Amino acid sequence: MTELSNWLNLEEIEPDRFLGISPPTSWNRVFGGLVLSQALASCLRTAPGRIPHSLHAYFLLGGETLTPLNYSVTRLRDGTSFAVRRCDCFQHDRLIFSAMASFQSPESGLHHQCAMPRVPPPAALPDPEKLLAQYGPGFPKAARHWFAPDQKIEIRIIDPEHYFNRKTRDFLPYIWMRVKQRLPDEPALHYAALAYMSDLTLVDTALAAHGLTLFEPQIQAASLDHALWLHQPLRADEWLLFAQESSFTGHSRGLSRGLIFSENGQLVASVSQEGLIRQRA
Fold first, then answer.
1. b/e string for 56-76 if b means 16 or more Cβ within 10 A?
2. What superkingdom heads the lineage (predicted)?
């Protein structure tokens, strides 16, 4: 199994109680996407035969790295068509995260979707090694960990110039992303891995409207809440386009939305997130 698979394969310590790994990070806090993904993975373990279609979550406190994450799942409903779960995450007996997830039994029906934006394919964009070589020391130091060889997610940035000329107009905050290593053929694992990736760049998208990035020393940033709708089966280890936009910033908060497409143009998920974007004095 890959390391990411291990993070998402939680230990069930008692019925509907799961223990998650909290690996170290360069900023000494638990990555919000990790908590999202482990919470969804925990809920999926309690809803066999169901397909996840939505997750709504609040980040209540920052999590500590290297401290286990304790997940408690409450079965709120098990209907013929839908099942609903609440998942609470604790560290040191403190509630740091709470989410609701809904699951559906397989069902057919009407279908439509919006078109995928026209952007360069991932193969036409520089890989992390070429990107860092091209931009050298100008690339934000704090951003480099996303392109480190041991990073679990591979990213292709469609408009990297944003990080250097602080463009606020005509900037496309779009990325291609995928899990680097091949994952097992377990749908639940791919849904959870997508939840992990869905928290990568939404706060940065809100800051882009102001010519800023997530990596500015004067910016205090954090995810506040997160909503994820899962539309279609997917593979998280194949390229996915994350097309993002921000509709509002104000009161030290920013709202961003995103659509996630497979490389063949299928809309697989939609995301919305509000984040803290406070300017330090």
1. ebebeeebbeeeebbbbbeee
2. Bacteria
Spatial separation of the C-alpha atoms in residues 281 and 273, rounded to whole Å: 25
Assigned CATH for 3-106+123-279: 2.40.160.210
Known active-site residue 223: yes
Q: Is 185 a catalytic residue?
A: no
- Which one of the listed residues 223, 246, 256, 270 is annotated catalytic? 223
| pLDDT tens for the 281 residues of the chain, in order | 458 888 999 999 999 999 998 887 777 789 999 999 999 999 999 999 999 999 999 999 999 998 999 999 999 999 999 999 999 999 999 999 999 999 999 999 999 999 999 999 999 998 888 877 777 666 666 666 667 767 889 999 888 776 666 655 566 789 999 999 999 999 999 999 999 999 999 998 998 888 888 777 888 999 999 999 999 999 999 999 999 999 999 999 999 999 999 999 999 999 999 999 999 87
16 an active-site residue? Answer: no
Q: Is 159 helix (H, G, I), strand (E, B) or coil?
A: coil
Which token pair is 185?
């053929």
* pTM score, whole prediction: 0.94
